[in-house]
Amino acid sequence: MGWNLKDGLRDCLVAAAPYGALLKAHNRRSPSARPQLEIFSSSGLPLASFPWKSGMVKQLGWTVSDDLLCVQEDGTVLVYDLLGGFKRHFSMGNEVSQSQVLETKIFHSPYGTGVAILTGALRFTLATNIDDIKLRRLPEVPGLQGAPSCWAVLTQDRQSKVLVASGPHLFILDNTACTPVTPPGLSPQASSIVHMCVSFSYKYLALLTDSGHVWMGTSNLKEKLSEVDTKIKGSPKQMAWCRRPKSQQPSAVVMWDGLLLVVGECKETIQYHLEDDSILVPELDGVRIISGTHHELLQEVPGACEEIFKIASMAPGALLLEAHKEYEKESQKADEYLREIKEQSLLSEAVRQCVEAAGHEHEPETQKTLLRAASFGKCFLSNFPPEQFVSMCKDLRVLNAVRDYTVGIPLSHTQFKQMTLQVLIDRLVYRKLYLLAIEVCRYLKTPEYQGVSRVLKHWACYKVQQKEESDEVIAKAVSVKLADAAGISYSEIATKAYESGRTELAIKLLEFEPRSGEQVPLLLKMKKSPLALSKAIESGDTDLVYTVVMYLKNELNRGDFFMMLRNQPVALSLYKQFCKHQEQETLKDLFNQDDDHEELGNFYVKASYKEQVCVYSSFFLIFLPTTEDEMRLLRFQRKLEEEKDEQLVGFSLQDTMTTLLSVGLHKHAEQLYKDFRMPDKRFWWLKLKALAEKEDWEELEKFSKSKKSPIGYLPFVEVCIKHHNKCEARKYVAKVSPEQKVKAHLAVGDVEGAAEAAIERRNESEISTVLSRCSATTDHLLVERLNRAKATVPKK
């Protein structure tokens, strides 16, 4: 280990993260000095160190996303990043705060990282996911007078439970009940359970009794796998489950002072003597043992390695390895070994064993020896698929790079496959190892948006927070590095710069953002309104200009607002158009301010016509049953249309139509639509909005089936979503045209349906859109399928 600990791990509160990737943080407790919180890599290299200035820490632990949790005695949980930066804090509730924390366990479940607390009142409080805190107070354990001898958190049936040992009794606590349980076949000599541990996958459980017996079985306590007498009756320091995935042999590791004992299926045990204070870290495929001087991995020997390396082995992999050794010596024995393998038709199996064994070995020379033997065997096979061999070579090159002591992520191949490449890249990024992360992405040919571009974005966000360099230097460095990267939003990087107090740097970075829609919101947030308005006008997007104008209207006083618009003729023109339909009085003020008497006169003429039309519209609504009154209104509006302002009449007609629809007079609205020959699209839009505003979903469905919609069926989906009715929205998804199918599916939250539509159309843009809505952790199968489909799309 690279650290220099005078007293080893003695008097330290230590937490080590799983998957070998995160390393220890420990809190040195000294009576004469303030405790020091130190964070190290797996090789003992320091990452961060700072004096602890908060309350007494009861437990340290790591989250699934490399954050450090510090649980204090009062139930407050402080969250730090991997480099010691404070992120946030939260409380485990008033009850915990009042009765204080007695014991704590930090655990991982399908929902994320959880915290379980035993309070001074001997009650359990549980939070299954610290990113979405929902505290659960579990039922009371009957007859519990003091702290339980041991307890553990289980995850069963998508629910987190607590297993508690009180003397000889075991209880399972869930949301509603405390249920007594009895392990099948437990030794009758046991009078109490002194320690317990749960497997990495939460499927298996090991119990240590006061008689020295270790009971191993399933975590639901329905099946016993083994029971071994350790012949040691003292209470252990730690206990951990040690079993490889898919292994048929249960095994657990029990640690006392100076002694490590491995128990399994048989009555025999394996003993290791420890020279220093150590801690055990359970892993997917073994147990890590960390002391003040060493960091070791204890695991069951993988089957392929055992077959090849055991003494006098005649396994095909062992024979192939010997054949290759003899071949390098230019000995004819190589041919004899090969013939023996081929006669049994086991050459393919021999190659597979060598490749698999290479993945489990940590020494590069041993890996090379096994892979060379596999390559040698492949030469004598005509149809052996090369994918496994090539993939293993790539994986091992990446693993050897991250296992280097300067990086300090000692992953096994099994762990690497379980955690996925994306998580490994994230962990490299969290450690600011950007160059290594980029090289890994390029070597494994990861798609840019998931690989190089993502890493560069994180690098740029980190770069803009560095205070020692000038804005010009950082802006130039970022633009040069990101020049050829695809899919990077400069606005996100500029936002990070602005949050770090570097407004001018944020403005410089926004100059590189090609999308005005991404520039403008941040400029408004930074109070750079004139620049935001100029950018919106340059984009040619009237909706964006309206957005800025409405923002300025609410933020500025009336005089400053009008003055700014006068300096931007395009914005002024668009605002006048808006006022014509929405704010007539404001339009009059604008004409007065500009001394535009001609337009002011036109305004009064139009206002008088509108007043007459509104009067007759109201008259029409009051006397609606009278056909003569209805026709009188229609004739009046036609006369106005022939004589004067066509735009004004159209606007008034739309008002009348909207009013009719809003009060449910659909037949009269349709008659008006026919008589005035209103465009189909306009009428459908008005009726669609009116029915949605009334939430008349039954009438809306009838309307959609009346005839083919001239505006398509995506508006039906969108208007239902706008009014928070996904159930109704789904009815119209099937009717949406193929080119709008992806958007419709995404609107109702159907990512899989969107993926099917995008793949069927073989549209790269649509596939990318769906990918951006997928989660790398929960939708990894769908992401892989979309990436495969994207790769087959012909390039334009």
TrEMBL record:
Any one GO BP annotation for this protein: endosomal transport
Residue ranges constituting the Vps16 N-terminal domain according to the UniProt record: 2-390
InterPro entries attached to this UniProt entry: VPS16 (IPR016534), Vps16_C (IPR006925), Vps16_C_sf (IPR038132), Vps16_N (IPR006926), WD40_repeat_dom_sf (IPR036322)
Keywords: Endosome, Lysosome, Membrane, Protein transport, Transport
Example GO molecular function: actin binding
Entry's localization field: Late endosome membrane; Lysosome membrane
Lipid bilayer topology: Peripheral membrane protein
GO cellular component: CORVET complex; HOPS complex; late endosome membrane; lysosomal membrane
Pfam family of the protein (one): Vps16_N
Stretches assigned to the Vps16 C-terminal domain: 488-790
Primary localisation category: membrane
Function: Plays a role in vesicle-mediated protein trafficking to lysosomal compartments including the endocytic membrane transport and autophagic pathways. Believed to act as a core component of the putative HOPS and CORVET endosomal tethering complexes.
Family membership: Belongs to the VPS16 family.
Protein known as: Vacuolar protein sorting-associated protein 16 homolog
Gene source species: Cyprinus carpio carpio
Lineage summary: Eukaryota, Metazoa, Chordata, Craniata, Vertebrata
